[in-house]
Amino acid sequence: MMKWMRTTIPAIMLCLIIAVASPAEADAVTKGGNESVISLKAETSTVSKGDVVKIKVSVHHVTDLYGIQFRVKYDASKLALKEAVAVGGYNDFGGKKTDADNGTVLLPLLREQVSNVSEVPALDIAELSFTAHEAGKATVELLEIKAVSTESFKNEAGLKDLKAITMIVQGPLSISVQGSTNPGVPSNPDTPSSPSTPVNPGGQNTAHGDLTKALKEIEQMLNKRQLKEAVSAVSSLFAKEIPSFSVDKRTQWEATFKKLIEDLQRSVALGTDSSDGSATINDESLQFAVKSISDLLALSKRLGLQTEGDKLIILPLASNTKPATSLHMTPEQMVLLEKNGMTMVLEWGQSKVKVYPESLPKKSAVRISLSSSSSTVKGYSNELRHLVSYNLDVSTVAGAENVSVTQLPGIMGLVLPFKAVDGQLHKLGVYEWDEQTGSWKYMRNAKQTNGLYELGVNKPGTYAIMEYSVDYTDIQKLYNEAKHAVEALTAKHLMFGTGEGKFSPNQEITRAEFTSLLVRAMNLEVPTNTPNVFKDVKAGAWYTGEVYAAWKAGIVKGNGNSFQPNEKLTREQMAVMLMNATGAAGKSAVSEGHNKFRDDDQISSWAKEAIYSAKEKGFIKGNALHHYSPKEHASRSEAAIILLRWLNQI
Length: 650
Prior knowledge:
By secondary structure, the protein is an alpha+beta fold. It contains 12 helices and 28 strands. Strands 14, 15, 17, 20, 21, 22, 24, 25 and 28 form a 9-stranded mixed sheet that branches. Strands 2, 4, 6, 7, 8, 10, 11 and 13 form an 8-stranded mixed sheet that branches. It has a 6-stranded mixed sheet with strand order 16-18-19-23-27-26. β26 (about 445-450) and β27 form a beta hairpin. The two termini are about 15 Å apart. About 35% of the residues are buried.
């Protein structure tokens, strides 16, 4: 659900911002009066190559700033964007768009608390971090400002809009990038002719020769698994100074940092609990690995090396020498991981359990196990064929007493391997056994990649990988892509038959049916009690909740009063709804020259941008004559094909 909130809310906000401005207000920028002001401010205006520059976006003398969108343009030849985040009670909900080649980042922000209305002299709404990578003057500026308050009014069309806020833009901001972090150090100390040779606290010389020598020594330590010595050497070498690396040396050091961190991730020693044979974690090795990984990642960031990654501790529990069915963790170990933001990955061969910082209760010790079985121990329907099941067990341990945990305080990640007959992968899925209903529940959040399923779960239990196949009698003559799409969406429990073993592939699909398809595919929450958004969507109809969920997510808009749920869906309506769901309608549209459909003149003006965006992304292709037939009704099999193409890209 959160994934789709992050995708659709910025699109909704962007539409609101664009809609509210009159032509005279379209850029929400002016050069006079008592309007609110938006500006950029940096911690410092002078930095050195390799430094991180932090710049805040601030608004001044603003009241009730509900939504704002702006583009930041920066000098990509001298600055590289590391991060752009919303602050001050605002959220971009995943709507941020970056273009590293052109040096731009687009931020649509929405205030999280709608009722928070107050005037402030200055409010920070976003923070951007850049790495300075080339000497010279760099500029950063704000463009395309649009802002709205929560105050609404009726526009010329009689529709409800939000009131625009006019702003003055200050800037641009100028940043001076020097050639070296330390005075007297040339921009490329790896060059043999470098005249200056700084010395580190340990007495080691970090110019070209000594950096190369130190690199080789650390690589030798890694080959010998001398991790403590390698960590100490790296920390000492870069204790006070930040050298400027040549391109080749930067690549080598990035590889060395990455190898050292990866070795540390797998360095934690395991013991055995004599009472039950479960694996235990050696405290000293865990503390060393956690601290070293955290320190190295921070040092790598300070050096401007591209080795940032997830903070992981990986424990192989099914090795040939010391196989263990379960892992015993103390509360102190769990708190240590949580304090440092570490994820623990437990490996039983290809099977994995990802224990995130918030995954477990921390008041007592816990025992975690994951076991697999190829035999079916619980009932399943005729359409389900069992492949393999996994039992995830978590229990708290207090002395000799074990108590099963039925609900986790957070999410655990599961990685489950499987084997399937070629050509049947599209029929597979992950199912959870529901003890209360005595049936299997399909897990929509499971993702299939290279013989593995990965998903997040919030409770222990039995999870099975199974093949779901319905023998529809009327799809055998469909062409391959259509037949495959129908089978795949049936296995994903998104599309269903029409009765008596039939799918009715040529039957025209209605607006309500396709809306429901998108809502299920996006895993949107469907409320039981919904307000009356459209006059012709009656309370209690089978599609009422889905239409409301789609309207709330910005997928459908209707014509103000009616939605026409039982009308046949046209192909152009289908494209618009699909791109609304993607949050990309009107973006990167291609409609010129040879890319035009031959019946382009038949496409409604309101649908062209969505159709050509969908075409560019490969969701729609047209027929052999390069016609799209926008006014024709979409069939159930056509909807299946397009929806599966869309699902395979998100």
